[in-house]
Amino acid sequence: MNDFKDKTVYQVYVKSFCDSNGDGIGDIKGVTEKLDYLSGLGVDFLWLNPVFISPQNDGGYDVADYVNIEPMFGTMDDLDELIEKADEKGLGIMLDMVFNHTSTQHEWFQKALAGDPEYQDYYIFKDGDPDTPPTNWVSKFGGNAWEYVPKLGKWYLHLFDKTQADLNWENPKVREELKNVIRFWKKKGVKGFRFDVVNLISKPEVYENDDRGDGRRFYTDGPKIHEYLHELVHDTGIKDMITVGEMSSTTLDNCIGYSNPDNEELSMVFNFHHLKVDYKNGDKWQLQEPDLKQLNDLIRTWQLGMQENNGWNAVFWCNHDQPRVVSRLGDDGKYWKESAKMLATFVHMLRGTPYVYQGEELGMPNAHFDDIDSYRDVESKNYYQILLDEGKTKQEALEILGERSRDNARTPMQWDDGANAGFTTGEPWISVPKIKPEANTIAEAEDPDSITAYYKKLIALRKELPVIAGGTISFPESDDSDLMIYERSDDNDKLYIVNNLTDKEKSVKIPEDFVNAEVLIGNYEDFKPEAEAALRPYEAVVLHKKN
Length: 547
Ligand code: TEU
Ligand code: CA
Hints:
By secondary structure, the chain is α/β, with parallel strands linked by helices. The protein is 29% helix and 19% strand. The protein has four domains: 9-102 and 172-371 and 411-458, Glycosidases (TIM Barrel), CATH 3.20.20.80; 107-166, Oligo-1,6-glucosidase, Domain 2 (Oligo-1,6-glucosidase, domain 2, Alpha-Beta Complex), CATH 3.90.400.10; 372-404; 470-546, Golgi alpha-mannosidase II (Immunoglobulin-like), CATH 2.60.40.1180. 1-O-alpha-D-glucopyranosyl-D-fructose binds next to loops.
């Protein structure tokens, strides 16, 4: 079930990738136009963010019709063409299945609103009086997670925006409808699926207040989650396709369950624990410096835990919800190139299937927006208001958004250094960051030492040297959390990977076996693999020996 170890997935946030018709919004034809660029990177799959009919209250994660294309992104013919042309270049298309909730514009929800009890049972409606929501659960986008519908005298659950109503997976009809969506796209020739917040679909039997938190403990990795996933995958016959689940606030044990091939659930999972090491008190909206000790511990625990139990991770730093990693854990100023390459090495040498998010391979930085009007994301706008209500000044609130907003990742793909970075000939729906115009595809194609060139090497090495895809991972004893060190090994080869996570010079002890070993790849010239080796700021190096 896991033939995806030597593959690399590239994520395309269609809305910001390439605009083919000058309306300022990226579209499916734009992706087709750039297939040469994408296949040139050496990646195997393209995961497209949702392109289905949607009012776009949450960037397409509010789906109103799962089997038709949102006109701003193009037509079904456009998607058919993309699937076909991508296939010719050896690129498989993966679609994003948002099955925890639908848009309130979806026909099912509209029928429910019109009073049809059959469709009310597609969602989670609870009777109640208008002043007291059924529980105190908090929406991931802020505020209470229930919305009252006066004419029905009922509340409905929305773990995200109030226009994203949670589906009732207890209802077998709902499960069958969603299977039909998978069957439809499978027939179209898509090669895989990403399942949005899929570990939130199984809700508890009893809805009760959470006296210790925001309610997530009741529905995260919920009671029937493994059963539902197995059923979805088994009944649609997709167990041999690439499938990745987005797992919100999950546990290692559950992720082993989701991805161990014996269970016939998913081929791999995303978790986000390593992307919370700069959350103060676990709160995304409170800033702190990244805790490198915690980062080291999390990587070690998850890598070893998944390995021991035959689980499989999707490994990544970036997606459309996360700030740009070079700004976050690296340095988008002085050590821009070095830190971007080090972070790439870190992820691509781990045990797991790597995901590259558009623009990451260019070292695109955070948006660095300095006014609220530049933001587009519903979560960012909600939290701006919440932060002001909590007593923060506008300046403070903007500073937090500057670090944490999802829009940091959603700025236009930088094709060149011209107007709007070559993304559109019109007015882009969101602006290009002011810094780093040099992070563009033309400049990087010309520079053999570019961040893109480095990503290409990493992606190619995965196919050339099997130990990267299939080797075991181990972690030497180390008490220096400024460094991320690990070893990969199979019958033929072994690798020693050292990453300096800081802008300081560091020294590292190289084990005897690897002293004077070949440097497979690194982000500086002339690394000397001596017993006591010197590392430059953000230096990454992979040492290679025959086993
Ligand atoms: O995201 C799930 C999710 O919980 C987050 O990454 C979320 O953006 C973050 O926790 C908020 O602080 C997925 C999609 O990737 C995201 O774009 C959607 O908004 C969300 O589900 C709802 O469909
Ligand atoms: Ca367009």
